[in-house]
Amino acid sequence: ENRLRQEIEDLEKDTGYKLRVLAQNYPDTPGLAIKDFWQVDDRTIVFVADPTFGNIINFNIGSLIDLDIPQSFWSRVAGKYGNMFYWKEKGEDASIEGAVMAISRCLREPTGASNCSEVF
């Protein structure tokens, strides 16, 4: 948890993008309250980790991030780290950490035609 917190803080400091991770189990969710609490804006990624429906990973992406990062990147991250086989074998924590690190690498890449084309 501390390692992820530091990565997320460094990412925001280095890039200006905000990444917020919400670990929940539906139906026990905070709902829209997080929007004000986290001051979600157009440069915010809300990463929802919830094992209730199979794929543990879902994203809500700010509109300015959508301009820089291809939509396919988010699908690839969810497909790799969020699928039930991955998180049941490696654990929910490994899924969340893997996705956070992939997002961090992507957001640190120079913007261009091949931006975020790989998910490691």
From TrEMBL:
Record's protein name: TPM domain-containing protein
Species whose genome carries this gene: Aegilops tauschii subsp. strangulata (Goatgrass)
